[in-house]
Amino acid sequence: MTVPLAEVNVEALSIFAVIVAITLAITYWASQRTKDAATFWAAGRGITGAQNGFAIAGDYMSAASFLGIAGLIFLFGFDGFLYSVGFLVAFLVVLFLLAERMRNSGKFTMADVLSFRLNERPARTAAALGTLVVAGFYLIAQMVGAGALINALVGINFSLAVIATGAFMLIYVVFGGMLATTWVQIIKAILLMSATIVLSIFVLGKIGWNPIDLFNRAEAQSDDGHAYLEPGLRFDNPIDTISLGLGLVLGTAGLPHILMRFFTVPDAKAARTSVVWAVGLIGAFYVMTTFLGFGARAILGEAGTTGGVDEAGNLAAPLLAQEVGGGDGTIGGDAFLAIIAAVAFATILAVVAGLVISASGAVAHDVWSNVIRKGRDSEHEEVYVARIAALSIGAIAIAIAVAGGSDLNVSYMVGLAFAVAASANFPALLLALTWKRFNTTGAVTGVLCGVISSVGLVLVGPDVRSDPLIELTQPGIISIPIGFLGCILGTLLSKEEAKAERQFEELHVRSETGIGAERPLEGAGLAPRPRRPRPEVPAGTGVAPTR
Amino acid sequence: MATPGTVRGPAHHEEIDWERAARSPEFQELEGSRRSFVLPATIFFFCWYFGFIILAGYAPSFMGESIYEGFTVGYLFALTQFVMVWVLAGLYLRRANRVFDPLVRRVVEKTPGAAGYATDGAGTSPTDGPSTPRTGDGRPGDREVTS
After folding, report:
1. Which of A270, A365, A315, A366 is CA-nearest to residue A46?
2. I need a surface site. Which of A37, A66, A262, A537 has the fewest CB within 10 A?
3. Which residues touch A158 (CB under 8 Å, ≥6 apart)?
């Protein structure tokens, strides 16, 4: 259990209130424009490359990156920094292999691309499963983390914190769709980058502007001595280190909420530009995790864990902010702590909103419209179901987080989400786009093999069982090859699919050139949309923001 | 235009001869040109990254050696990963803008029915090509926007 640092932190709550007010105003603006499916899921494809780069950064850098990695570096030194490197290198896979192809081939969801030339219903169901498993684990981890952090930083009750986070997330998604989600993510990315830059400068100032001295001071402050600067404190098994690296680098390219962002830009060129922006922002952020993590060790020493209150090290960065701002009880220290707490809150909101909207796409666009209704529903119905789906998914995640409480072990869930993404989603997507012979059976077996092997390995591993059947905390090194093998064997052992091979050339040319790609809506983006003459719009064409 | 059964997914375009487009020398050149960058770049970053990860796993004390006053081999190697990502992303962007995009435009020009799909970064106007209905309902009220 975490214990609140203070009673109720009024300063932090006031900054929360400002952030929430701004994001709610944006949501209101977005809700006025969200009348159709292309705006609900893809923001009308009117987001520019630079905007989308910020939004990808905001979607990707979760509280697990901000507070979690600072904490991991604080606790384990160099091994924590391995995460920073892996999270960034992953974007080369996205840039070289998927970003432009996704934009050219898809419509709203990852499943659109996977099922483009395969049998619609089984392939979509498999892709929706992969999406929901990844989004589910990720979402629960974020919600529990949000509750515990807000509880510790701001002093409000865990359940209340989870419910409040969940409620704002649902307001953004249900009313404002992807347009609101995008702007929440852009604002969050700006806040997070600014806070991290300021905190890094303060840390550097504190240690005398010599970055190298940071390492020596951190080493001196660690009970592990020089081992703190060497790999191996967190992962004593080298196979785990390699497995983690594989999972991070290939997992990002299978995260449905990240891939979905590529449908929000007008074309492939903007998709490419957005990854380059994201790589600049995310890279700069992860370099600065050095100052947060090693800085917390150098400046706070063992006090960074607040006397064992916080074993995961999640509070290292906020406590560091408090210390470099002047210390506990000073105006500067408390204000800086409040700012970091508010930024962490914005960080969580942006990520969970992105997760919920991708999960709503899997339920409403994939399963409901295409599998259950076989395309016979109206677009109005699709968006309506999407809102219901978002509400239900959010409610389930809130319920699990509240029921599990802050003692629910979520430490392995983000890693597991990456492992499933790398083992189930990435192989199937890549082969659907590049291998002509690939067929529906291959896609279904591949996704199933990837999901079952990664979840199974974690369930029998040391993070879940006290008597693990396998000494491997990171499943990637086994589950990713199983995912690929599932795709390949499933394809080769089943009959050739004439339609899949015939339509391969369409997908192939379309994914590389954008010929036939979904077009942006007229007037999407920031420009005011031309008003339709009222009388000519039949009642019920647009979906009014519900209630 | 849209194939039954995929009405709610991305619209298929049966009116375009995809086989012919795929066999065209312009498309072959585009593919070859893209592959000649992406393949070596991918192999390079995989080797560089997994070299780093494998050394971190199997040679921890080497990674912990100081190069300059406590600045370690491992940390320097980690920083080179950041530089590698930025440089490769920048090179890819430049190559794509200068080489791939003009090749894409040529494929579009040579493919009957593909006019209006060239990548220009600002989105193609829905009016300068075969227009897809703005919304899938096909209600009369939706048409006015595209026409």
Report:
1. A270
2. A537
3. A147, A148, A151, A402, A405, A406
**Structure-model confidence comparison of residues A285 and A306, the more confident one:** A285
Longest CA–CA span in chain A (Å) reads 75
CB contact under 8 A, A238 and B13: no
pLDDT above 70: percentage of residues in chain A: 93
Q: How confident is the model at residue A310 (pLDDT cuts 50, 70, 90)?
A: low
Nearest to A378 among B5, B137, B145 (CB): B137
- Residue to test with chain B: of A72, A288, A515, A521, most B Cβ within 10 A: A515
Cβ-Cβ contacts under 8 Å between A and B: the total is 265
Tell me the two tokens of residue A165.
């986070």
pLDDT given for residue A450 in this prediction: 98
Across the interface, whether the CB atoms of B74 and A269 are under 8 A apart is answered no
Query: What residue in A sits closest to B33 (Cα-Cα)?
Result: A512
Within 8 A of B1 by CB-CB distance, chain A residues are none
* Count of all residues that appear for chain A in the document: 547
Number of domains in chain A: 1
All residues of chain A having their beta carbon less than 8 Å from the beta carbon of residue B50 are: 242, 245
Task: Tell me the Cα Rg of chain B.
Answer: 24
CB A78 within 8 A of CB A229: yes
Q: Do B96 and A215 touch (CB under 8 A)?
A: no
Q: Categorize the per-residue pLDDT at B142 as very low, low, confident or very high, splitting at 50, 70 and 90.
A: very low
Q: Which domain holds residue A61?
A: 10-405
Please give the C-alpha separations between residue B115 and each of A397, B9, B124, B129, in angstroms, as whole numbers. Answer: 46, 22, 10, 6
- State how far the Cα of A157 lies from the Cα of A151, in Å rounded to an integer: 6
Residue B55: domain span:
18-74+97-114
Closest CB to B8 among A219, A382, A514: A382
Note the pLDDT of residue A534: 44
| Helix (H), strand (E) at residue A110 | helix A110-114
Distances (CA, A) of B107 to A198, A310, A515: 48, 58, 9
Q: Is A438 contained in some domain? A: no
**Of A167, A143, A194, A158, residue with least CA distance to A339:** A194
Q: What is the ipTM of this complex?
A: 0.92
For chain B, the domain total comes to: 1
Quick check: A396 and B28 in contact, CB under 8 A? Answer: no
- Mean pLDDT (chain A, rounded): 90
Residue B36 lies in a domain: yes
CB nearest B117 (choices: A216, A242, A517): A517
